[in-house]
Amino acid sequence: MTWFDTIARTFLDGHAMLQVLPQLLATGLRNTLVISVAATVIGTVLAMVVALMGISTSRWLRVPARVYTDVFRGLPAILTILLIGQGFARFSQSVFGPSPYPLGIIALALISSAYLGEIFRAGIQAVDRGQLEACRALGMSYGRAMRLVVVPQGVRRVLPALVNQFIAIVKDSSLVYFLGLLTSERELFRVGQDAAVLSGNLSPLVLAGVFYLVITVPLTHVVNVVDARFRTGRRVPTPPKSGLDEVAELAPSAPTGPRGSSL
């Protein structure tokens, strides 16, 4: 047996992939998307609050927002997941039951909110301050101006960064398996890992990685397209020229005198 056959049987065993494919589709892919989307939605709401606190003129709001951002951006994701998932396990049993699944979502939401908060803050502060001053001159309150004019423009500026953060959450969702999920709650990585341990073959893990690529790679290209669209702006089509316009452009202009009169 050559080294190529050994690598093919270890990583590209079609039989092992076919055996784990139904579990990856029905359980792993579904739970990965549920964890990622739920964490992103919760994290986005928290991030907007953190961002608005971070740009506030009050130190009592800015300082807690900065501490929150520094803590959850500075800690490794796996450490945050273990601290939340294991530290609050007793408290969550009365609300969520014995499953650590919701705590994993909360941990990822806290992590993502710290990054998303900085993204939102940068986008809002990038909006020209004249926008806010113009709204105030029209009689709008500060909160109404931020809600209707400034914040929507700031969010539009950072849409590519938001998609990139969702991609990071999809990949970090694989760390939730450290909390010991139930069989029906396993995500892509845990399904592939369990199948790899049972079969003694790494092909199920390779297939799980393919599913991650199927989710993240198209989103990456979407981000690039959206970012390029925002940078170049929307092109305004020029109206077609009539025959008279073309003749006027081709005709030589009449010479003018010193004061602009025709010679």
From TrEMBL:
Annotated stretches, region: Disordered: 237-263
Membrane topology: Multi-pass membrane protein
Subcellular location: Cell membrane
Annotated transmembrane regions: 33-55, 67-89, 101-120, 202-226
Keywords for this protein: Amino-acid transport, Cell membrane, Membrane, Transmembrane, Transmembrane helix, Transport
MF terms (GO), sorted A to Z: transmembrane transporter activity
Pfam families in the record: BPD_transp_1
Main location: membrane
Listed PROSITE patterns: ABC_TM1
Domain ABC transmembrane type-1 intervals: 29-223
GO cellular component terms listed in the entry, alphabetical order: ATP-binding cassette (ABC) transporter complex
Biological process per Gene Ontology, one example term: amino acid transport
Highest taxon of the lineage: Bacteria
Family: Belongs to the binding-protein-dependent transport system permease family. HisMQ subfamily.
Protein name: Amino acid ABC transporter membrane protein (PAAT family)
Species lineage: Bacteria, Bacillati, Actinomycetota, Actinomycetes, Kineosporiales
